[in-house]
Design goal:
By secondary structure, the protein is mostly beta strands. It has a single domain, classed as Beta-galactosidase, Chain A, domain 5, CATH 2.70.98. Strand 1 and strand 2 form a beta hairpin. The two termini are about 35 Å apart. It binds beta-D-glucopyranose. Beta-D-glucopyranose binds next to strand 24 and strand 25. InterPro entries: Ald1_epimerase_CS, Aldose_1-epimerase, Aldose_1/G6P_1-epimerase, Gal_mutarotase_sf_dom, Galactose_mutarotase-like, GH-type_carb-bd. It comes from Filimonas lacunae. It is found in: Cytoplasm.
Length: about 375
């Protein structure tokens, strides 16, 4: 079902919103910065060297990525006053990540989100996965792709591009088949972080890859994300049960607190959603569904920053940081508390291997898994 496809056109799903915004604050000036990638030693895990790559574009925007978990550790950009800070939550050292934060910035796999009871069938073959979220399987299990050391290769300096590869062996966390995974991160001069995911397998297996960056556009988790604005191009979502497993239903957001079809303040109705937002949105697909489409716009008036999310995926998990509880402290010293950061995870729908009615996530030998997601930071649009 997954085909190899190329991106040539960006379909702007809600063009109206994009047009007419901006103004002088959005204009860029030549910074004179040289784009490139720097690689620094960052420690070792299980005897394998860990590095921190710093991708810098010609505007001086920097994204730091480690080959431990393929983790985006920071994304430093100016706010409307020219002050620089990171729009994602992360740590300055590897030890922060070894303390097992809840997937900060990491690549998630082999399967993003939950698989009910950690089990599924492919044809008549039943599989049992590691269960690491009560009775369910979450984000790839006990040692998902967020906790392994990837092999990093810098492939371009002028448009900083980092390739990360990982071989997930047959039986890892209970999954069938050797899965070869390639994740390509590119930082463009337009402040886009492009992520391209590719995989192939030698046995049928579920695959659902995503990135688990936690955003706070203000650059400081001392500010709640309840004041951020959010628009999601989705008329429907997938309801969940009390263990956050999708029920299999696809329901309209209209008339519910899940409706973000027009921009809403996140905190406006969050108390009407028990536990907060942690739901998969069924993206409205227009035209060729293999093309990148604008899925969501996050905005923050404090910093003047906005973030546009484009994807080829059918779903988007909006997670409002409900389980953040102050256990972890951000690089700037602020405690990472409930609703101080949020995730916009592009994906197939949770528990698809057990939900025949959802688009399939089974990758078969001979097929290519190939998806694209772009996070684009914009100054001057709130
Ligand atoms: C899930 C949450 C989970 C979190 C872990 C999100 O993607 O939807 O339920 O608690 O990841 O940090």
């Amino acid at each position: 079902m997954k085909k190899l496809f190329r991106i040539s056109v960006v379909v702007l799903a809600f063009t109206g919103l994009l047009a007419g915004c901006g103004g002088d604050a959005g204009k860029k000036e030549e910074s004179g910065v040289k784009a490139g990638i720097a690689k620094a030693d960052w420690g070792q895990v299980d005897g394998a060297p860990v590095y921190l790559y710093t991708l810098t574009n010609k505007e001086g925007v920097q994204v730091k990525i480690s080959n431990y978990g393929g983790t985006v550790t920071s994304w430093i950009a100016p706010d409307k006053n020219g002050n620089k800070s990171s729009i994602v939550v992360g740590f300055d050292s590897l030890s922060g990540y070894l303390a097992k934060p809840p997937y900060f910035g990491a690549i998630i796999g082999r399967y993003g989100n939950r698989i009910a009871n950690g089990q599924f069938k492919i044809g008549s073959d039943a599989y049992k996965l590691a269960t690491n979220d009560g009775k369910n399987h979450l984000h790839g299990g006990n040692k998902g792709f967020d906790k392994v050391v990837w092999t990093g290769t810098v492939i371009s300096d002028s448009i900083p591009t980092l390739i990360l590869t990982y071989l997930s062996k047959d039986g890892e966390e209970g999954y069938p088949g050797n899965l070869k995974v390639i994740v390509k991160y590119t930082l463009t001069d337009d402040d886009e972080l492009k992520i391209e995911y590719t995989a192939d397998t030698d046995k049928p297996t579920p695959v659902n890859l995503t990135n688990h960056s936690y955003f706070n556009l203000s650059g400081d988790v001392a500010n709640t994300i309840e004041n951020h604005g959010l628009q999601i191009d989705a008329a429907n979502y997938t309801p969940v049960d009390s263990t956050l497993i999708t029920t299999g239903e696809i329901k309209p957001v209209a008339g519910t607190p899940f409706d973000f079809t027009v921009k809403q303040k996140i905190g406006g109705r969050i108390n009407d959603v028990p536990g907060g937002y942690d739901h998969n949105y069924v993206l409205n697909k227009k035209g060729d569904s293999t093309q990148l489409q604008l899925a969501a716009i996050l905005s923050d008036s404090l910093s003047g920053r906005s973030l546009e999310v484009y994807t080829t995926e059918p779903g988007l998990q909006f997670y409002s940081g409900n389980f953040l509880d102050g256990t972890f402290t951000a690089a700037n010293g602020s405690k990472i508390n409930k609703h101080t950061a949020l995730c916009l995870e592009t994906q197939h729908f949770p528990d698809s291997p057990n939900k025949i009615e959802f688009p399939t996530t089974i990758l078969k030998p001979g097929e290519k898994y190939h998806t694209f997601t772009t996070y684009k930071l914009v100054l001057g649009k709130q």
